[in-house]
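question for whoever is on the cluster today: can someone run the full assembly for these? two chains, 705 residues total. i dont have access anymore since they changed the login thing
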Amino acid sequence: MNKKQKQTLIRIIVSAVLTVALLFVPVSGVWQLLLFLVPYLVIGYDILIKAAKGIKNLQPFDECFLMAIATIGAFVLAVLGEGHYVEAVAVMLFYQIGEWFQRYAVGRSRRSISELMDIRPDYANIEKDGTLEQVDPEEVEAGSVIVVKPGEKIPIDGVIIEGESVLNTSALTGESLPKDVMTGDEVISGCINMTGLLRIRTTKAFEESTVSKILDLVENASSRKSKSENFISRFARVYTPAVVGCALALAVLPPLIMMLFGQEAHWITWLYRALTFLVISCPCALVISIPLSFFAGIGGASREGVLVKGSNCLETLSKVKCLVFDKTGTLTQGTFAVTVIHPGQVDENTLLHLAAHVERYSSHPIAVSLREAYPNEHDDCLVTDIQEKAGHGISANINGSVVCVGNEKMMQSAGAVIERCPHPHSGTVIHVAKDGQYLGHIEIADVLKPTARTAIEQLHRLGIRRTVMLTGDHAKAAQAVAEALEIDEVYSGLLPEQKVQQIEQLMADHPTETVAFAGDGINDAPVLTRADLGIAMGALGSDAAIEAADVVLMDDDPLKIARAIQMARHCMKIVKENIWFSIGIKVLCLILGAFGLANMWIAIFADVGVMVIAVLNAIRAMMGKKRIKNNE
Amino acid sequence: MKKTYKIDVDCANCANKMELAAKKTEGVKDATVNFMTLKMTVEFEEGADPQTVMQQVIKNCKKVESDCEIFLK
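^ ran it for u. tokens below:
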């Protein structure tokens, strides 16, 4: 609560106590009017001043002006014997309570969201003459060496030059599993150093670092307004003048018509009804609850490592019907690993052992994955005479025998006869021969992410009509992945620009469906931009992807896509509830008011009560997490 | 050219009014007011001087909402 809010709160309490007390004071006539004016002025003097300023600036539909007219009108009616002074004071009092509550709620959610994104580092440690000095991260140039002590946030992106530690990345990714790092590893700002002292050579300036990029993105997120928000601000612009016009008509027309037909005019009754109209005319509930819902929704999502670039993106995300994936790096790990070992004459371990020896010095991805599959490759075997035959494979002398590892051509030149394997292969097949005799083969393929299958399943359960995979990989590999994951459509062998064409084709085929593309963002930037909604995965550190995408998933877990959609839908549901609820209650009260069925108290509820309920409902959008867990 | 300014305003509808007033100001190509983050982003027309344009924006905003504040840093 700031000072202004405290003052208002005190005024509300004083005025409320006075008003209630006055109900028990047995006075009437002018004295009663004067006494009730005291709490009225206590609570409403600023509104009256603002109303006067509004008139001076020719802004007649200012809500302060409306409140002033409504309450002064109520006083006039009370003087004339219709209604009570209490009503006039109550309208102002409840209006102020509503305003106060709204400010309080907005302030609270502003703060809680900035706490969620509490990743901004306050300082960086620089070593100078043996002592550590704390400086503003913005002053640290790229290429400087900074020191990060255990418990501190890494302030700037860089590479570790000394030390090893465990990093907590949960503030960035929502992932609670800590990450081990050591000398030579790249680290990103915003992670918390948990155990060891790290010396880091910065690779970027602070403004270019991950933390700044993310904060920038989140802080500017709600500037991109959604259709619902635009609808509401247009609605508010028309609504208030329309209701004021109706109020005016209500005060003047019916009595005039009555007079024409020679009946009693009932000026006072119609004036009272017109005043209730004015009280209902304030569009606060709508105007505050919709952006607040989006703000809370975006904030809640960013807590889980899902950055949504604007309310409009959240809206699109909730409508996605067709999800297109990139294969490598999105559904698969993007790194090769040994998936199948089919030995002929020897056992699996021996086959892998020999292959790993031959590939000892090669830096080819295949060699790396072979060595990874057989970690203790450096044993006492004698490996000599390693020869690489481009386009064929590698041969070496191991303990006196010549071992050849490579493709079919390599086997031919080694004089080995390949034994046909009955199983289909989707990856790259590596054959092994020893002294011209065929030993067997090893398949190396990109492995699926462990959560990929569940992710697709969840998306289908969420009502995503089509899942499509685009890949530059060959058809066989693509088919194998698609079958394993039960993806509906596959397009393989695509160059990056063909991916864009394919997305356009998909969008043209079903023009009403919202198409989202999820990719790892490294070479997918054009596709991310072209799709109705671009989702970049594991985008930490990839500026191009953050730039091009609408939704950025901080880690590369495909499960987060389904979760992001759920959160977006949850938020949109709240937005719709608020729109219908606020407009519905207001219109209902207006109709009741016109027929004289709603008094001033109901009008106050339609104004303040609805706003309080809508604001509380909006804050629910922040608590997306629990709800989603329950759904699973 | 785009610039972002911190603002202070109490109600969401007033923020909408400020946005409208800023948009109508001469030299302003587009403007958005974000009530939740209390920021105003102004895109200036080619060749317009942000300083002088912003003075006018403040004046126009004050007209529609006397209680608002725009901080020009």
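summary bc i know u wont read the tokens: The interface with chain A takes residues 4, 10-13, 16, 19-20, 32, 34-39, 41, 62-67 of chain B (CB under 8 Å). The longest strand of chain B covers residues 2-8.
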